[in-house]
Amino acid sequence: MRRLSILNCVWSTLLLVVVFHQTRAQRTPTISYITQEQIKDIGGTVEFDCSVQYAKEYNVLFLKTDSDPVFLSTGSTLVIKDSRFSLRYDPNSSTYKLQIKDIQETDAGTYTCQVVISVVHKVSANVQLSVRRPPVISDNSTQSVVAGEGSEVQMECYASGYPTPTITWRRENNAILPTDSATYVGNILRIKSVKKEDRGTYYCVADNGVSKGDRRNINVEVEFAPVITVPRPRLGQALQYDMDLECHIEAYPPPAIVWTKDDIQLANNQHYSISHFATADEYTDSTLRVITIEKRQYGDYVCKATNRFGEAEARVNLFETIIPVCPPACGQAYFAGAEEVAATSFALVGILATLLFAR
């Protein structure tokens, strides 16, 4: 009985050893470690570690698994023909180390360590590589705006880059935005009811901390009816001398400008000379020169501006004086040398004395 008991014990032990070895041989390969997500700058270096267990008899691959998978290595052999890539295998830790130098923007994506057990059975682990990229404002961002006064304006700004850029809006010369602040953060800047004071250059600035960022200038034109200001509503001049009447027009689109007297439109001739000078897209200075003034030319002159948004007019009164007003009456003498100015002054005094004694 005792011998039988010993035999049974030995047999059980042998059976346990066989089962143990069979179980060990049948263990499924696993990936015990994969490098965590990596964020690198362009031109830097990255290394991916993939530690495997029970994979001695299996093929271990590195792939870039984005839209179209790219095989990088098989076992301890590098497949990709790119000098920036290298592969090392550490047998002590059963770790495959894939290194990429001089990282480029196109290297960003998902990298997969894979143990091929069979055609249909694979064990995989992924690691994400993100490459910091400076912001680039997209072409689908707003480039310019033309809107009528009172309408709603929407400006959009989008940018690519990593990390995701922040979009900040500013105005030229740090003017206050229609949001009543110096800056506004967001992809879309809305102006609910645009005013002519809102026109000008807006800056869309994209920043993500990589390089100096990107900027786009957006020109906003606001269409509005003319507004006229007259610097000198009343002007005096003596008979037979010239006088310039001026009006300043603010309007967009640029208006048609006319001068009238007694409801009659004036034109360039021996009595009048009209000139317009645009100082900016929205500003025009108009000057009417009354030449060698006659009695009938005294009175009210009307400067009138019209565009498709409306019209405006302003009056300038020209009245008679005894003494000529310089300039433009004595324009040449006014800019002449001291002797000529003195001679002109004596002549004017003489004219004044003659008129006084005549009375």
Short descriptors:
359 residues; mainly beta; Immunoglobulin-like; 3 domains; eight-stranded mixed β-sheet; seven-stranded mixed β-sheet; disordered C terminus
In brief:
The chain has 359 residues and is mainly β. The protein has 3 helices and 26 strands. The chain has helices at 2-25, 331-334, 338-358, and strands at residues 30-34, 38-41, 46-53, 59-64, 70-74, 77-78, 85-90, 95-100, 109-116, 122-137, 144-148, 153-156, 159-162, 166-171, 184-185, 188-191, 200-207, 214-229, 234-237, 243-252, 256-261, 264-265, 272-278, 283-290, 299-307, 310-320.
Distance between the termini: 167 Å
Shape: rod-shaped
- Strands, count: 26
Mean pLDDT over the residues: 87
Topology:
Blueprint: H1 2-25, E1 30-34, E2 38-41, E3 46-53, E4 59-64, E5 70-74, E6 77-78, E7 85-90, E8 95-100, E9 109-116, E10 122-137, E11 144-148, E12 153-156, E13 159-162, E14 166-171, E15 184-185, E16 188-191, E17 200-207, E18 214-229, E19 234-237, E20 243-252, E21 256-261, E22 264-265, E23 272-278, E24 283-290, E25 299-307, E26 310-320, H2 331-334, H3 338-358
Parallel strand pairs: 2-10, 11-18, 19-26
Antiparallel strand pairs: 1-3, 3-8, 4-5, 4-9, 5-6, 7-8, 9-10, 10-13, 12-16, 14-15, 14-17, 17-18, 18-20, 20-24, 21-22, 21-25, 23-24, 25-26
Organism: Drosophila rhopaloa (Fruit fly)
GO cellular component, one term: neuron projection
Keywords: Disulfide bond, Immunoglobulin domain, Repeat, Signal
